[in-house]
Specification:
alpha/beta, 2 domains, 6-stranded mixed sheet, 7-stranded mixed sheet, Aldehyde Dehydrogenase, Chain A, domain 2
Length: 479
Amino acid sequence: MKPEPLWIGGREAAARGGESFPIRNPATGETVALAALGGGADVERAVAASREGLASWSRLGPRDRAARLFAFASVVRKNIRGLAEAETRNTGKPLRDSLDEAGVVADCLEYYAGAVQKFFGETIPVTDRGLDFTLREPIGICGLIVPWNFPMMIASWKFAPALAAGNAVILKPASLTPLSALMLGRLSKTAGLPDGVFNVITGPGETAGRALVEHPEIGKISFTGETATGAGIAALAAPSIKRVSLELGGKSPNIVFADADFDLCVERSVFSVFGNAGQDCCARSRAFVERRLYKRFVEAVVERARRLRLGDPRSPKTEIGPLISRAQRRRVEDHIRSGVGHGARLLCGGTAPEGKGLSRGSYLRPAVLDRVRPEMRIFREEIFGPVLCVMPFKDEDEAVALSNASDYGLSASVWTRDIGRALRVARAVKSGVVSINSSHSVHLEAPFGGYKKSGVGRELGFKALDGYTEVKNVFVAER
Ligand code: NAD
């Protein structure tokens, strides 16, 4: 098997070190590709290529950049099936989810192609006589470091605004999931992006990722991943005073009042924690339910969780695919064991399915636990697997207090028909995103990001363009 090359300066490039690493399909355990093991020397080449790419890209006006990004979106749409199949082969996620996510990549490119044409500075009334105005200028070279749970979609949340604003990007996918990023690199060329504007370096975080973060010519790092990794990256980026945005972990609450639309709430609650096999930073992994609805809600959720169809990710019937790796499954099982060991009760799931081809993959049946207490690890730590903790609450204050008893603050849902209460709770919950009667956390047009240890900065919406530009103030004296 020949290793998938890096993508540098608009062409394929072997890693300088000549090494590669295996890429596995988590549904079968098979090696499906080899990827080039990029390192510091390759980052150096990508920086040089970006420098050259920037020379033409940053000089284009917004309309011309937008035209290339619309073309990129259209090439992505034409290749949606190939992208989705690669993503599913690499992550194990159901193909229909990969198809949706590939569609989001195109949507995101189109959104920022449009947005950047309406993005401009201000004229500011200053005391001194003259004219004061601001310019929005690209930062230059941006390093984009992404995780394995939504590889191409999260990458697009970064490269679409970064490119629209006139930057060059070096994308580093997670080492487990580089295939879609490499395809996107090749498609950027088909779409007519100048060479060197979109580069992809595959390899481990500790070497390839670290080389990006430490490189003095890279002006910004946009990172999505674990909170501990993000803290390390912020420290590594500090000496060169890089701009850093961090999208980190979550332990999101799902607050259910007794007057909620029951059937809708149960269905959405189940998918909001078990979708993507629970490997979702916004997973509503802590359900707080008003005491008088508690028993009925728990029974319904357990019943629905038991019926979730685990299976071959390529089958349209499959609702839940495998976890990303056996190591990840062991991590999740360890959390469940710890919870049960400290007195939580496992109501369903938590075991690896046997037979029907599933035993080869890293599947885990969705688990629901009750009798959870706030001091337990399963309540406090991000599990990143199909595990739901349920707890009853007596009133609004207790629901808010339980929700906020977390180091994280990424997303939250509130289910109630009482709009006053919904708004009070939405204000009181400390998180970057609150969904009322919905489990959707992400809208391309709206800002997304975390409070507390869930991150720094915002992606998506117009806000993201702020994060990929510098503000220059210009004053012209009136003489
Ligand atoms: P991770 O932190 O292990 O890795 C993320 C990326 O960082 C990978 O590309 C990795 O190679 C790279 N990396 C690791 N060490 C590095 C270093 N020292 N220097 C530079 N780069 C380094 O995360 P993961 O396991 O891939 O993803 C799961 C995590 O991502 C979860 O915690 C999840 O909550 C989080 N996540 C957050 C969001 C969000 O928007 N808030 C979205 C998706 C995932």
